[in-house]
Amino acid sequence: MKRFVRSSAVSGTIQAPASKSLAQRAIALASMAEGRSEILNAGNSDDCQAAIRVCRDLGVTIDGDANHLIIDGGLKLPEKPLNCGESGLSIRMFSPIASTLSGEITLVGEGSLKNRPMQIITDALGQFGVECSTANGFLPIKVKGPMKGGHISVDGSLSSQVLTGLLMASPMASSDVTILVDDLKSIPYVQLTVDMMRKFGVDVENINNSEFRIKAPQKYKSCKFNVEGDWSGAAFLLVAGAIAGEVEVTNLNPRSIQADRAIINALMWCGAYVSIRENSILVKKESLTGFDFDATHCPDLFPPLVALASHCVGESKILGVSRLKVKESDRAATLMAEFTKLGINIKVQDDLMIIQGGKPKSAKVQSHGDHRIAMACAVAALNGNCEVEIDCAEAVSKSYPGFFEDLEKISK
Question: Strand 315-319 and strand 292-294: pairing?
Fold first, then answer.
């Protein structure tokens, strides 16, 4: 599907979409819990739907809709492979969760997920006594539990999502678990996981984000959980306000521990007007100058940050390029390729991306099947006196199905 975005001023109020990161975790935790849980405002992203599908195939009863899910927990050995769609978080959560059951389970995926390396998952699970294999390091993954527990070591620089899956499965191991983590990246996402596990009744000891201790077996308890608005999706709307007018994004918790809340810092550092309110953020266009930002622990901010930097006077520098290699696309290479088409000069030096601000021009760009690339190109086009054609724009459904409709609502 192609989408056309013309430069225009923006003004208005938009509700942030539900956080797919929180929704997926909540669905998985509720599915492992005893009794009936309610998940409010889970949203309808493709990744959320993938988590629901996997849990249903694991024998969990899930009723309701995007606004109100009712989940009766209790996992059973599935009768068919678990399809995680294109969700990296789902494959990394449900591989360990499936390993808590006695019997072989196959996990598969679609699209770009087939090209993402999976050996780190099986290497970690093997330390728990789980029999597991991949197809030369890629999907499908086959696991056979039960998970025994004990001490394991994980390289935290490769994927915090793997650690998230291991943590969530650990209370269901047959003995206590200690996970030693070296060089953990995306720390806020792991803190989010630990916080949610506690909300579902499980105790986790976190020692300086380098050692995690979980008593096992423990049982998750059902609860009522409200999914926050998504700072990752909202970041694009906030950047739109900074470069093209004025936007207020509601359904955002200013005290959230979501990693991408850090977009507020970048917006303030480059000179945008930012007003932090009780349940919303208002951003207005001002004179913007280049900024420096460390995205090591929030790599999903790279695309909106590049869109922002493209409209700043001077040079902007974003640290953390090494975190972009294995996403829905190779995001560093993709951002360079697509923003070059827009007339924006980007170069990479080691772990640093350097963006020279300018004025985006008309171009035909390609999302590469990456939802965040599609949104970044769309937002960058808003203040360039140009028209941008985005191919494979349907990729936004992965996290923010209503993105283009919301963008149209505030475009003048």
Answer: parallel
At 181 the three-state DSSP class reads strand
- Residue 285 has a CB neighbour count (10 Å cut-off) of 20
Q: Residues 154-170: pLDDT tens digits?
A: 999 888 999 999 999 99
**Cβ neighbours around 251 below 10 Å, total:** 18
| DSSP conformational letter for 261 | G
Distance CA(16)–CA(232), nearest Å, equals 9
The residues facing 354 across adjacent strands are 317, 347
Could you tell me if 166 and 99 are in contact, meaning their C-beta atoms sit under 8 angstroms apart?
Answer: no
Neighbours of 203 (CB within 10 A): 12
Identity (one letter) of the amino acid at 125? L
229 bridge partner residues:
18
- Pick from 215, 372, 397, 376: nearest CA to 310: 376
Across 156-279, the runs of DSSP E, i.e. the strands, are 177-182, 205-207, 211-214, 224-226, 245-250, 273-276
Single-letter amino acid, residue 228: E
Q: Measured between alpha carbons, how far is 284 from 264 in angstroms, rounded to an integer?
A: 12
Q: Find tokens 């550092």 and name the residue.
A: 269
The percent of residues above 90 in pLDDT, for the chain, comes to: 96
| Omega of the bond leading into 96 within 30 degrees of 0 (cis) | no
Quote helix, strand, coil % in the chain, to nearest 5: 35, 30, 35
300 catalytic residue (yes or no) = yes
Helix, strand or coil, per DSSP, at residue 7: coil
DSSP single-letter state for residue 278: S
Reduce the DSSP state of residue 212 to 3 states and report it.
strand
User: What sign results for the dihedral spanned by CA atoms 172, 174, 177, 181?
Assistant: negative
Q: Which amino acid is at 179?
A: I
DSSP codes joined into one string, 108-147: E--GGGGGS--HHHHHHHHTTT-EEEEETTEEEEEEEE--
Phi, psi at residue 119, to the nearest 5°? -65, -30
Q: For residue 327, name the pLDDT band (cuts at 50, 70, 90).
A: low
Catalytic residue, chosen from 47, 230, 300, 406, is: 300
Give per-residue pLDDT as tens, 246-299. 999 999 999 999 999 999 999 999 999 999 999 999 999 999 999 999 999 999
Q: How many CB atoms lie within 10 A of CB 112?
A: 18
Least Cα distance to 266 among 303, 239, 300 occurs for 239
Task: Report the distance separating Cα 296 and Cα 299, nearest Å.
Answer: 6
